[in-house]
Design a protein that fits this description.
The chain is mainly alpha-helical. It is built from 8 helices and no strands.
């Protein structure tokens, strides 16, 4: 009997992960077993929706509403594509390592943790009337800066890891 038949292991479908994330954001990651990432994506999407609703309630200027809408739409598309890529990457990794490998354990990302912490602080400052959403929306370029720093540090650590 062939070893592949005995294991009964099938890779997760990238298309199904993307479809699940399209209909219920973050659910494609639950399907893949990446529960932490799915929860983080659900929280970030909910925070963006709440921010958009609050910005539009406070009679914000049109550019602020446009920026928040673009951030919401961009993140929604990103999480669908990311679930597809995560499933494709897991399938390739499992095929390479073989079916007898240990289940993958996801470690929380420091970047994601800091992002959620900052979003929570900003929402709390708004609730305490210390900082209004119209002021928070003006800070959105800081997200791009933080993402750029995260990518640079990831590339730098990947290079150091490859040299050893």
């Amino acid at each position: 009997m062939d070893k592949r038949e005995n294991t009964g292991h099938r890779g997760k479908s990238p298309l199904l992960a993307a479809i699940l994330s399209f209909f219920i954001p973050g659910s494609g990651f639950f399907y893949l077993g990446l529960i932490g990432r799915g929860i983080v994506y659900m929280i970030v999407l909910a925070a963006l929706i709440i921010a958009l609703v609050n910005v539009s309630e406070y009679n914000a200027r049109a550019p602020e509403i446009v920026v928040m809408s673009l951030m919401l739409g961009g993140f929604y598309i990103f999480q669908v594509v990311d679930s597809f890529n995560a499933a494709r990457g897991r399938r390739a990794t499992r095929a390479f390592e073989g079916a007898q490998s240990k289940p993958e354990v996801e470690t929380p990302s420091l970047f994601g943790s800091i992002l959620i912490l900052v979003l929570g602080i900003l929402f709390q400052l708004n609730n305490l009337d210390i900082l209004a959403f119209s002021q928070i929306v003006r800070l959105w370029p800081l997200l791009l800066i933080a993402l750029g720093v995260h990518i640079m540090l990831s590339q730098q650590s990947a290079r150091k890891g490859g040299e050893k």
